[in-house]
Amino acid sequence: MKSMFPGRKRNAVIVAGIVLYLVIVAGIAFVPVPRAFSGSTATDEASLLDGYRHVEVASVSDAMEKITGQRIYMSHRMSPIFPTKFAGFAVTVKLKKEENHDADALQGMLAAIDQGRANSVYVMVVEDGIDIAGMGGLMGTAMMSRDFSGAVIDGGVRDVAYLKKIGFPVYALGTVPSTSVSHYRFAGSNVPVVCDGVAVNAGDIVSADADGVVVVPRAKAAEVLAMAQDMDFKEHSMYAYIEKLKSIEEAVKKFGRL
């Protein structure tokens, strides 16, 4: 006997199929995504750097001292070739003094640039290098093309006119015309270094602005940023308060910040 409701039966089959499909899709949607593929680490890093790029280095320095009990900032000798502000993750490079005629003596220094990722800060220590240019226009161009945030050189810098022209920010101990070629040898990359008296490890946050350069250990980066942001908020709120009351004492009393 033929079904009295052939169309209704066919519709029921179609509906059941759609429901089954939706159940399968929903099940797939709720399968946990492994952390390695979720993009959360990249998001965390981007958020961290965005915070450091907007907070004042003086506040970062104060926060570091409060949290760690140490003053971890570079000296007045470490100066920018033009006014700048940047933050990024340290890529460390070390050069040792050694007279040589080895064409590959500095190859590792260049490899560290070519292997660096976006948002890196090139932190180079040149042994007794205050009058030796640790970098110049060629290295600066390579760093800029790879989206480095900037460079901090415990040594000299040259080709400053070109670096200014392309807008690549560099902090160094001074401007000199000399070269490291034939006078230095690469001694390691992404190794612990001491840059202008400050310990720097690969991956640390390097934050720089008109007030100078501060290094924040990666493990402390989120905690230091949160405190620095709070300090910034209080200080910026104090300006109008001081102008209104014409009293810095009252402002400090209210905000607890100096």
Describe this structure in words.
The chain is of the alpha/beta class and 258 residues long. The chain has a domain at 72-216: Glucose Oxidase, domain 1. Helix content is 43%, strand content 23%. It has helices at residues 6-29, 35-38, 40-54, 57-68, 107-114, 137-145, 160-166, 221-245, 248-255; strands at 79-80, 86-97, 120-126, 133-135, 150-157, 170-175, 184-189, 193-195, 198-200, 205-209, 212-216. Strand 10 and strand 11 (212-216) form a beta hairpin. Helix 4 packs across helix 8 and helix 8 runs antiparallel to helix 9.
Q: Helical residue percent? A: 40-55%
Structural class: alpha/beta
Radius of gyration: 27 Å
Q: How many E strands?
A: 11
How many individual helices? Answer: 9
The fourth-level CATH homologous superfamily of one domain is Ribonuclease E inhibitor RraA/RraA-like
Q: Which regions contain 5 or more consecutive residues with pLDDT less than 50?
A: 1-5, 19-40
Q: In the CATH scheme, what's the topology name of one domain?
A: Glucose Oxidase, domain 1
- Give the integer mean of the pLDDT values: 86
Largest sheet: 9 strands, mixed
- Intertermini distance: 93 Å
CATH class (first level) name of one domain = Alpha Beta
Rough outline: elongated
Q: Architecture of one domain, CATH level 2?
A: 3-Layer(bba) Sandwich
Portion in beta strands: 15-25%
Order of helices and strands: HHHHEEHEEHEHEEEEEEHH
